[in-house]
Amino acid sequence: MRDPKSLEEAAGLAVLGAIPRLGENETAQQAASDLRSPFSEAYRSVRTALQFATVRGLPGTLLITSAGPSEGKSTTALELAQNISQLGKRVLLVDADLRGASVHKTTGLPSAKGLSNLLSGACTLDEVVQSWRNGALDVITSGPLPPNPPELLGGAALPKLLSDLRRSYDVVILDGPPVLGLADAPLLANHAEATMLVVAAQATRVESLQAAIRRLQFSRARLIGALLTRFSMVGGDEYYGYGYGAHASKAK
What we know:
The protein has 12 helices and 8 strands. By secondary structure, the chain is an alpha/beta fold.
């Protein structure tokens, strides 16, 4: 996928936004700290698109996943969680990648207790919810990585947990694992109100993307759209703010 148009054609999904490629030696945290940067503006545009994702507005539970690893899903989960919380919503970010957890690394929060402890019944919700940046966002890290994640994610504990969380939070964002080769993401997608697929420009193969979509659809995931990351903005502003425009055109 080179650009939002090719992604839309290959996926058959609305493209909710295009996140620009970071500069050399620039981190996501540095780009996000500048509220006027194209990176920050792009995620605000995605937030706007998500406000039209369901008949009630923002989805109550949103799974962020990708076909394969290293496509930008964890960065997207964190950025969207922060952006949505700025609307005055109570937001919880959950690291649901029980194989390659990373939320504790990007937030600097401990992960001795987290989602795996909750699902196994070893901890209560109060014991694992952590406040980040003076209460701007609540976070549940992964906890100890289990030997067999599908056993935890496939039981009755996950849907009950999501139901309980929705009583306390306006939006619960799940940073999920990649789709291909694992049973984890389809299990999560089956219980999430909405699923967003993150796709890296010039990296994700069309065949991999389409295979991931088929797997998610088979699990009855409610796919609301795709997000293109690492998009080169060279060549003009044709795709700037793509998320809102594309989503609105789909709704017409």
